[in-house]
Amino acid sequence: MALRSLPLLVLVAVALRESCLGASSHSLKYFFYSISEPSQDLPHFVSLGYVDGQIFVHYDSNSQRREPRVSWMKKVGKEDPQYWDRNTQREHESEEAFRESLQTLRLRYNQSKGLHTWQWMYGCELQADGRKGGFMQYGYDGRTFITFDKERLTWVAPQPQAQITQRKWDADRGYNQRKKFYLEEICIEWLERYLSYGKETLLRTEPPEVTMSLKLEVEDGMETHVCRVDGFYPREIDASWTRDGEVWLPDTLHGSVAPNADGTYHRWLSIQIDPKERGRYRCHVEHNGLQKPLDVALEEPKSSLGIIIGCVVAGLVLLGVIVVGIWFFKRRQDDYKKAATSEEGSNRSSQDQTA
């Protein structure tokens, strides 16, 4: 059985990017990665499972065991005691199949021994309106090797070397039908089961916190305002700039949704405007954790009078410190002179007594 490729970090990035499917959507995805010449620290085979973009199971050729990565997966073993053994055995079989595929592809591409990668990526999505989606892809040495078209029940081979695999798999109509059934039915059933196990985490909602910052452009007198949306879950969010209540796209930049260390997400968006039109703009945010959308006004620049007053106060404080320091220094000098005079008088008395 042949398989798919792209570097592992690329696959992880794709996993996170494709998890953003719309409001209240959910996804289950798996990524398999094999390397022909691993280092001592890098296993030659790794598989990762993601629910809603978060790793929940892991296997590699060093541990030789599929293991949970989240606490709620412990519930699986209680309901299905053979779950971990059964899936570990499947990982062993995939590991061996990947090893064979690397050898086959190296010969097919007429390559000498060296560093080569072989990867497989598949999964399913369940969207808020009940629509289901699924995909399956393979790649070799960082390039797409073959992709499954589940609607047409055929494989798409962008490279000549993949056409041999395409003909082999398309010749077995039952094989393609089983792949389609898995993506549309079995995968969705497992996704729903995992969501029920981790509902306290995966189905929670945490509203975003919106903060604004301002940067003045001195040269042309324009202002750049940055709207940061932070601490929200799930990751699906609608954040945009509006002008007079309408979505405004000119002179705007948007950052992608990115994870925080605590499992929530953040995003930023900026806009450059004429200060005279500041009152026309808002940062508009919609999220499942909000009872109603937020429309946050732009931050007003700090008053120059306040800055001047602050500087005056700081100057007065500094002046006070200097005056106190001078007084303390003069006081120490006076004390020193008095102490020196007293010591001389006592010495004279002693000398007078001995004369």
Any chance you could write out the topology, listing elements then pairs?
Blueprint: H1 8-18, E1 26-35, E2 45-51, E3 54-60, E4 67-68, H2 74-79, H3 83-108, E5 117-126, E6 132-140, E7 143-149, E8 154-156, H4 163-170, H5 173-197, H6 199-202, E9 209-216, E10 223-232, E11 238-243, E12 246-247, E13 252-254, E14 258-259, E15 265-273, E16 281-286, E17 294-297, H7 304-354
Antiparallel strand pairs: 1-2, 1-5, 2-3, 3-4, 5-6, 6-7, 7-8, 9-10, 10-15, 11-12, 11-16, 13-15, 14-15, 16-17
Structure overview:
There is one protein chain. This protein is of the alpha+beta class. It folds into 2 domains: 26-203, MHC class I-like antigen recognition-like (Murine Class I Major Histocompatibility Complex, H2-DB, Chain A, domain 1), CATH 3.30.500; 209-296, Immunoglobulin-like (Sandwich). Helix content is 37%, strand content 30%. The protein has 7 helices and 17 strands. It has helices at 8-18, 74-79, 83-108, 163-170, 173-197, 199-202, 304-354, and strands at residues 26-35, 45-51, 54-60, 67-68, 117-126, 132-140, 143-149, 154-156, 209-216, 223-232, 238-243, 246-247, 252-254, 258-259, 265-273, 281-286, 294-297. Residues 1-23, 304-313 and 335-355 have low confidence and may be disordered.
Brief overview:
The protein has 355 residues and is of the alpha+beta class.
Oligomeric assembly = single chain
Strand order of the largest sheet: 4-3-2-1-5-6-7-8
CATH superfamily of the largest domain: MHC class I-like antigen recognition-like
Mean pLDDT: 83
Keywords: Disulfide bond, Glycoprotein, Immunity, Membrane, MHC I, Signal, Transmembrane, Transmembrane helix
Main location: membrane
InterPro entries: Ig-like_dom, Ig-like_dom_sf, Ig-like_fold, Ig/MHC_CS, Ig_C1-set, MHC_class-I_related, MHC_I-like_Ag-recog, MHC_I-like_Ag-recog_sf
Organism: Crotalus adamanteus (Eastern diamondback rattlesnake)
